[in-house]
Specification:
By secondary structure, this protein is an alpha+beta fold. It has 1 helix and 3 strands, in the order βββα. Strands 1-2-3 form a 3-stranded antiparallel β-sheet, with helices on one face.
């Protein structure tokens, strides 16, 4: 799957464990949504640099 195939990224820091959801343009083997646990954070409820970087890379992939 290419980054351009990801339509949206959402980050839910207020659930345990924090969750990331990828919404895909075309359903794959796992459907059109992929959920996974976000990397652990030392400061609860703060943004995740890893997820922020993922969003930047996905945006760049859309423009390519």
């Amino acid at each position: 799957m290419a980054l351009s195939d990801i339509m949206n990224v959402s980050y839910s820091p207020f659930v345990s464990p924090p969750r990331v959801t990828l919404l895909l343009r075309r359903p794959g083997i796992f459907g059109n949504r992929i959920n996974f646990a976000a990397p652990a954070r030392m400061v609860p409820f703060s943004s995740s640099p890893v997820i922020d970087e993922l969003i930047v890379r996905i945006d760049a992939g859309r423009r390519a």
